[in-house]
Amino acid sequence: MADEWNRFVGGSKNGTFLFDRRFMDYHSDRFADHSLLVFRDDRLYALLPANEKGDTLVSHGGLTYGGLVTDSRCSAQGVLSVFAAINDYLRRHGFRRVVYKAIPWIYHQLPAEEDLYALTAVCNARLAIRDISSTIVGSRRLKFTESRRSGLRKALKAGLRVCASTNVDDFWPILNDNLTQKYAVSPVHTADEMRLLQRRFPDNIKLWLVLDGETPVAGTLLFLTPRVLHTQYISATPYGKQHGAIDLLFDHLINNVYADYPYIDFGKSTVSDSADLNAQLIFQKEGFGARAVCYDTYEYAL
Fold it and tell me: Which of 177, 156, 122 is nearest to 247 (CA)?
């Protein structure tokens, strides 16, 4: 039912291309998919991207967010019924717990927080994790702080320039080195996986680089959804950091290329799904004029 699923996502009020089966299934070897389709009077009414992990349903372990996907016909009372039906299904299939990663409101094309009400009214869920992200509102952009403007001046003085690219091999070594040295982790996606996703979603996944001559010294990989430009990855070489490459990059993207985008979301600044704030990271994002949006994860017992 992949085609029917994808059509519903495309016409939904809160779905993004991350819920397209061609995106979700790229890491199907790592997650036991248990996504649900909810029908009402023989018509597809809602979707829940999910995977199973023992006796727990996670919505979704391989995605940044993964809540209930609905369309404009879906009502508050209808969503209450959806959660009652889902919970009944899960009990009958031996599940005992649900982890639910809500879709942040900035991604909604129409208001779609009926699920948050249902989590309380039907499921007695508790807020388990609150991550903090940083987002720019396109219509109310704040000025860069002096530290970001200083970096921009350094980049211009060094003659750095920004360009679009389709070659992740120019960026992945920078990203790998940065994540390994700073956090002892690797990117969520491999270069091969990102090339695959780029081919499948050329309009939604964009790479931008900062060059010193012809040498990449910084870059960002962007995920574009109808209302949100999300910075999936940002990294720079030591030279790029020293010469303000990231400041030049986001001055160009925020104030020129994507100046009309409703929201520019820099992603989480909390560590390992906890309340531990990466102060240095969020300081940089706030320097571009971004302010807080929370990514919430709920849990409840069945």
Answer: 156
